[in-house]
Specification:
The protein is of the alpha/beta class and about 250 residues long. It has two domains: about 150 residues, TPP-binding domain (Rossmann fold, 3-Layer(aba) Sandwich), CATH 3.40.50; about 70 residues, SIR2/SIRT2 'Small Domain', CATH 3.30.1600.10. Helices cover about 35% and strands about 15% of the residues. The chain is elongated and about 60 Å long. It starts with a helix and ends with a helix. The relative contact order is 0.20. The mean pLDDT is about 95. Bound molecules: 2'-O-acetyl adenosine-5-diphosphoribose. The site of 2'-O-acetyl adenosine-5-diphosphoribose (OAD) has 24 residues, from helix 9.
Amino acid sequence: MRDSIEHAVDLLRQADHVVVFTGAGVSKESGLPTFREAQEGLWAKYDPEELASMEGFRRDPEMVWAWYQHRRTLYGDVEPNPGHHAIVELEELVPRVVVVTQNVDDLHRRAGSTDLIELHGNIYDFKCLDEGHRLKLADLEGQAETPPRCPHCGSLVRPDVVWFGELLPAEALDRAFWESRQCDVMLVVGTSAVVQPAATLPYEAADHGASIVEVNPNPSGASHIADVLLQGPSGEVLPRVLGELRRQKGSL
Ligand code: OAD
């Protein structure tokens, strides 16, 4: 591991532009389950791919709303972990750092990442079914009905996250591709890198000359194109990388 960390630090030390591409694994040490892990408790019998879909919402809007409410509570009860914080610290050591995340949990923002592209939306944003009016939790306060109704047009309100079978927000996706083509290093952290189109980003970066550094305890869909594999939990590995990078940059 020490050699791999040295190699990763070497690449980061020379980089002017780093894209950090993250998935559910980066939030694991905050206490959140990854996307593909079995659900717990009340929700264990449901398949998240069915709940996170328009078909699921049309079939049983109240249940899907309750599932998202449960997840908002889970997310609200945890804190960003040392992995999130190390990604924020990278901004002090590399001129340009862009975080591209598949997570909807808001933990990168809460940690303080300043340039964040949320490919799958954010669980604290909402929109209505008929008109796509964009709403915040505060707009829905005081409504007893679940799901609530849009204050502008009266249609059902859904979370503004990307569901299975839906397109990713075009602006976010275009920018994620653009940044991936421009960067010197892509850090691929805590993602199985199997869900398209996000999983293409490491390939796009590598094809345009970026070095790929992966942080994951397990192999992923991007492992075979990685220049460096840092096998371990991101909450432990990233602070070590940052510590060494800071030490080397400080002694320049
Ligand atoms: P997954 O659940 O597919 O993958 C989580 C990854 O995190 C796996 O590769 C694990 O090995 C890794 N992992 C586990 N613990 C870790 C730790 N402590 N540190 C670092 N890595 C760890 O989650 P995603 O790749 O995020 O999309 O899944 C991508 C998308 O699939 C989700 O955003 C979701 C789903 O379809 C939508 O909902 C649209």
